[in-house]
Amino acid sequence: MRKKIVAGNWKMNLSLEEAKALVSELKVKIDNYRNSSEGREMPQVVLFPPFPYLTRVADVFVNYDQVFLGAQNCHNEDQGAYTGEVSAMMIRSAGASHVIIGHSERRSQFGEGGIVLAEKTRQALKNGLTPVFCCGEKLPEREKNAHFKVVADQLLEGLFWMHKDQLSKVVIAYEPVWAIGTGKTATPDQAQEMHAYIRKLLADTYDQGLADEMSILYGGSCNAKNAADIFRNSDVDGGLIGGASLKPDDFFSIITALKP
Ligand code: PGA
Fold this sequence. Notes:
- By secondary structure, the chain is an alpha/beta fold.
- The protein has helices at 16-35, 54-60, 88-93, 104-109, 114-126, 139-143, 147-158, 164-167, 188-205, 208-213, 227-231, 248-257, and strands at residues 5-9, 44-48, 67-71, 98-101, 130-135, 171-174, 216-219, 238-241.
- The structure holds 2-phosphoglycolic acid.
- 2-phosphoglycolic acid binds at residues 9, 175, 180-181, 219-222, 240-244.
């Protein structure tokens, strides 16, 4: 079933003490919300802390049916001599349920492309993790009007090799690279246009049932002020939030801006 989701990607930020403070503030807000009448309608919240904090955060939210934990990346192999890497199995066994695959920072700074990202997605699914698969164009690509093709190619390489039953477990995040961490957000119309395009691509490649079922999140300078306008669009099922997810008040405003 299509889900409403607000995800927080902390990236490589926060000391453990800072992370604990953020989590305890968030927990209080979520508890209050759940105890109020509105609480029944809270969207799914997925937190993506850095690897070393995963078990700590998992322990805090262990009995929360709407709060999930994820890792920001995983390796594309099962196990082995890959010093410094973390496998999907390890992430799962640390209490996480999600993993971000193909974030633009991984693509541009760590050279991750189609084949590796397809393997990472396969690893995630094999180990029972929900992949949050990122796609999005760079500014020159949008200026050349190539953004639809870029996103289609990324989805084709990273996801469209798989069977419909597997794909239905994936969450897609559209994150235009020019909007990530820049303060320059896509307009609600630009977000809706791309999300509708992605959904049509899913319908054409697979079928309408799958397209209707999949959650597509927007990411890129989404904040407490602009979230409601972006989320109002029919094909936007929530957000993948970077900078604003480090501020409990802002992140919580974004959570409540997403109506079920
Ligand atoms: P931002 O990052 O909200 O800071 O732009 C989003 C992301 O990279 O997922």
